[in-house]
Target: Methyltransferase domain-containing protein
Amino acid sequence: MAADRRLASRDIPRAGSDRSRRHGHRVRVAAATPGRRDRHSPDTRYARSARRNRGRARMTASLLVIAPHADDEILGAGAIMARAAQSGARIAVVVATNGAASDPGRDAETLANTRRDECRAGLEQMLGYVPALLFLDQPDGGLSSTAISPSRMSALADFVAEVAPDTILVTDPADGHPDHKAAFGLASRIIGSGIGRVLQVMPVSQRVDRRFDPTGYDAIAVGDFAERKRAALACHRSQLDPVAGFSLAPDICDAFTTVEYVRTAYDRLDRSNDAIPAAHFDSLFTQSPDPWRYDSEPYERDRFQRTIAALAGRRYRSALELGCANGALTEQFAPLCDRLLATDASQAALSAARDRIGARANVVLEQRTMPQEMPDARFDLIVASDMLYYLGLDGVVALMAAIEQSAMPDARIFLASYLGETETVITGEMAAEIAIAHLPGWTRIHAERTERLRIDVMARI
Model:
């Protein structure tokens, strides 16, 4: 969309410029602590790199908080905003949806107006003033990171240009609420366009749902801001005393007025955000032709079965598999394709794939590093299964641009993402939402998830 190009091409002053410094001294916004080891994590060297990225304190002169709904900014980041403001940082808030669906017992238009008023009052209680504030007025429960109207995207572009944030804080895509996932995707579009330095996430709905695992996050005590935060939450009366809808229970408010959590998803100046190099995977596949136990691990077998089920019922003329590893999945969906090009950056992985697949007339195996070496061809199926989080945010953004150029008009893009702890800088959930947010004009035609896996199939509709 034209608004997207405008957002991406604006010459926004970066953190450290005269414009960003004038709003005050740099202040600390904490990053996350290391997560647990997992079989999907990279080797020790890259895990340590990710931990360094998460554990390093962040300095910001301008903080932009993107809240899917009015009250998420207070719940997830009230004390973070207050500390930053107290230290001289400029604060800005975007509220993405109108909040009109939170209580079906009330008139939607009246509720939307009420929630805007509550948002202003809550921010004034928390900060002592109402910061720069933009309401995108998207449908509550229907936020999309790609389907916002050009006029609202233009308003967002103007707002972001004025704020010139060097840190963007948004809801964690691990939150169960779809609006929280889409808000992260929207934030990834802003940071992916070159605006801002640091992208951090805050868990909100997963804490409300009492299913939050703090592994990988930095816990930030609310401390002296607790009473102020309680007063700010009390301004959101429609959420505390609904007629028939969602309610912020007292114990939930107590939890949020005790501690806040953040996790760093991206830092433009930190090289641990880069894609993990082929040498890492060469080492793994040299030690074993099946380092992740594709043939025996229940997760992998389930992933393969769900992949074939999602792809079945259609014949693919020309398919591309990214990150084919030892060819375990390649072998299973090759019968659905007239021609299948399977690629991997690791020569050792491809050697294992050749041993596994043998000579098949419709399968070609090639060593390619993505997205730099995207084939000069067109495909009606592109598969990126359990590999996006290895690319980092910049890599996923670039790959989606390359995929758009290579996709036939009737193409399907298949994304599978592991939902456990990876110790890469971005998680599988983050990678999936970044990918979807950078496919404007595409619609999700199939989605499913288990505790450990999410699958998204995209098409142009």
